[in-house]
Amino acid sequence: MSWFDRPTFAARFAALGLAAIVASGCTVRPLYSDAALPAGTAFEGETVKSALASIDIRQPTNRVELEVRNHLIFLLRGDGSTPATPKYTLEQSVSAVSTASAIVQVTKEREPTSAIVTVTSVYRLKDTATGKLIASGKRAISSSYDIPQQEFAALRAQRDAQNRAARELAELLRIAIAQDLERLPPAS
């Protein structure tokens, strides 16, 4: 007996048709699409890409914040330029905390030989014209590193781990900000 001869063929066909109808009402689209957003959204006729490019990022206060800011500027605009007329302002506070993990190798001093650095950003996205808070959030990324016995090498390993975490944090922030902008209600 073939698949088409079974009495459940009609039920399967009806289920497939129902699934097609449900899927046709789906409004999923790429987050970074170049297509203009539809009417009734906060960016009517504008793209999320252009909205991201119009974000001005405040000056950093420490080295790790500078790393996050530089990567984020590149991700938002593709270059180091500042938007001529920024629509949004991003204020962020970035901190890096290093914690020693378990002892992997036993040295004479019984010091830890590996650590984890956690880079955290608390951000606030504001409308530049009104100063109104649009979105806020907190994101964190961890990166592990080995601690060699030489002091300079240990400091360099920690800095490299901070740089890796800063780069990943910038990627995470770009996604979070794009999602925040997508959720904005239309301007009234």
Question: What is the topology?
Answer:
Elements: H1 9-24, H2 48-53, E1 55-57, H3 63-77, E2 88-100, E3 114-127, E4 133-146, H4 151-182
Parallel strand pairs: 1-2
Antiparallel strand pairs: 2-3, 3-4
Summed up, what is this model?
The protein has a single domain (about 5-180), classed as Lipoprotein like domain (Double Stranded RNA Binding Domain, 2-Layer Sandwich), CATH 3.30.160.150. About 35% of the residues lie in helices and about 25% in strands. The model has no long low-confidence stretch (mean pLDDT about 80).
3D architecture notes:
The protein contains four helices and four strands. By secondary structure, it is of the alpha+beta class. It has a single domain, classed as Double Stranded RNA Binding Domain (2-Layer Sandwich), CATH 3.30.160.150. The chain has a four-stranded mixed sheet. The mean pLDDT is 81.
Characteristics of this structure?
four-stranded mixed beta sheet; single chain; 188 residues; alpha+beta
N- and C-termini, Cα separation: 62 Å
Mean pLDDT: 81
- Share of helix, binned: 25-40%
Element string (H = helix, E = strand):
HHEHEEEH
